[in-house]
Amino acid sequence: MGCNFDITITANSQKEANTKIDLAIEEIERIEHLISSWKPTSQTSKINRNAGIKPVVVDHELFQLIKRSIALSEITDGAFDISFAATNKIWKFNGKEMEMPSKVEIAEFIKAIGYKDIILNNEESSVFLSKKGMKIGFGAIGKGYAADKAKHLLQQHGVLAGIINASGDMNSWGLQPSSIPWKVAIVNPLDVSKNFGLFELKNSAVVTSGNYEKYLTIEGKRYAHIIDPRTGMPTKGILSVTVFAPKAEMADALATAVFVLGDELGISLINQLPKVEAIIVKDDGNLKTSNNINVSTK
Ligand code: ADP
Ligand code: MG
Questions:
Q1: For the chain, what percent of residues have pLDDT higher than 70?
Q2: Any idea which ligand is nearest the CA of 168?
Q3: Is the whole model's pTM more than 0.90, yes or no?
Q4: Residue 154: burial class (beta carbons within 10 Å; 0-12, 13-18, 19+)
Q5: Which of the listed residues 209, 230, 256, 259 should we mutate to test ligand 1's pocket, taking the one with most ligand atoms within 8 A of CB?
Q6: Domains of the chain, with CATH numbers?
Q7: For residue 1, which of 167, 239, 186, 131 has the smallest C-alpha distance?
Q8: Which mutation among 68, 113, 225 tests ligand 1's pocket best, with the greatest number of atoms within 8 A of CB?
């Protein structure tokens, strides 16, 4: 998945815990092999290789993930779009300064983006990227999906409580052995020694997307590794977005979408969704939070 997973569970013995955690790791690896656009042998790579050529029959699981991704594009007005990737890479998110690509290059890039050009066939369980140069990738939702699946598997194996941490994307269930809920601290991206307080996680997920790890700069301005599918440009203005939701998949995708939508539209979207909350840190240091969040900077 291109990230670390830390898995903490309650169990009667260390041995039992290790066996169950191994199952969760296998599950995460299985999903990675299915959905990763980096692995040439994955079904996602097969879809990408056949862009503009022909539909590819895929497992029900991947088909459904793509279907849910398209539904997320619809509710986010296209801000979240798994076809953001396109094959011609015009942006390099290595933390360095680069030159603005030309208007022609950006226009070419946008041409190969568009969730409406992902053609699904339910009967055949096939996926067709109808334009040449199109490409899909689950960088903004895959971690959350894998965490949800690992959690589900552990629950099926009788694990009563746990917390899965996919590089800061936290997904929990049950209570700690001391019978208190799991708590997570949301770090202030402007000063990582400070946080916005502790939040209880009760059978739910919290995901943070931030531009402090993968970014680029153009003329000294910092851009996050999240692309606005509508303009082809990387996003700026927001430092981090934290989203609370019942499922990690939803939280993951929405955190990315809010980056693209910006703080105003982003928060109004979050406020319309039941059981979803968000904290946005803008690059001027100001915070914007959804209706039911109270934060204090410590
Ligand atoms: P993080 O890596 O900080 O957890 P995200 O969950 O927001 O961040 O995922 C960012 C990744 O999502 C990018 O590296 C890229 O692979 C992919 N991506 C970029 N822009 C979009 C977009 N508009 N919609 C969907 N996925 C995107
Ligand atoms: Mg995301």
A1: 97
A2: 1
A3: yes
A4: buried
A5: 256
A6: 43-129 (1.10.3980.10), 142-289 (3.10.520.10)
A7: 167
A8: 225
